[in-house]
Automatic annotation (TrEMBL):
Leader peptide range in chain numbering: none
Primary localisation category: membrane
GO cellular component terms given for this protein: cytoskeleton; endoplasmic reticulum membrane; plasma membrane
Membrane-spanning segments: 41-59, 65-85, 97-114
InterPro entries: Prenylated_rab_accept_PRA1
Full protein name: PRA1 family protein
Membrane-protein topology: Multi-pass membrane protein
Length: 190
């Protein structure tokens, strides 16, 4: 097993170039759209982390108690869902069969529990605004050759990154790993 590496911070002109490197995703081809999002999440993960921290800090300074409460609820539910997904057979099979629905249900549960404590809007602004910005960028940004190469290395097990581990825990990378392994095996046979 490869040790965990932190991905490089991509330069601004690679992360946010002109409009020629952005395109609307094909909403009728969900696997292709999912592949684009996962690839960009893996490639730009350090840039996304920096963006999320900046937004989180700005909102957190405006209302720190609500941000802390919201973050504690979401972190607890996320860790609980990952544990249940690994240790409970029913949840594990549901997560494998419906990875996107699983993540959506965790998000809905966190919202419902957080609404009991108040401060929902502050948390939504501080936590989910960066997530929305990251998802929008990952959906619209076209992949380049470096992006595809980095993702193949991650999928083949040559490299492990924090985002790769997170996506794997959420069940979002299993199909891509199989596709990459099939691709590599076919190239080795040639």
């Amino acid at each position: 097993m490869a040790k965990v590496e932190i991905a490089a911070l991509r330069p601004w002109d690679d992360f946010f170039p002109g409009s020629e490197r952005f395109a609307k995703p094909d909403i009728h081809d969900l696997p292709k759209w999912n592949n684009r999002v996962v690839s960009n999440l893996l490639y730009y993960q350090t840039n996304y982390l920096a963006l999320a921290v900046m937004v989180f800090l700005i909102v957190g300074f405006m209302n720190p108690i609500s941000m802390f409460t919201g973050a504690a609820v979401v972190a607890s539910l996320f860790l609980g869902s990952v544990w249940a997904g690994e240790n409970k057979a029913v949840i594990k099979s549901f997560k494998k069969d419906n990875p996107t629905l699983f993540v959506f249900l965790v998000m809905v549960a966190s919202y419902l529990i957080m609404s009991l404590f108040g401060g929902v809007m502050i948390f939504l602004l501080g936590i989910k605004l960066p997530l929305l910005l990251i998802f929008a960028h990952a959906s619209l940004r076209l992949r380049n050759m470096k992006n595809k190469l980095e993702n193949r290395m991650e999928g083949a097990g040559l490299k492990k990154t924090p985002m790769g581990i997170l996506l794997e825990a959420l069940g979002q990378q299993e199909e891509n790993i199989c596709k990459i392994q099939d691709f590599l095996e076919s190239k080795l046979k040639e």
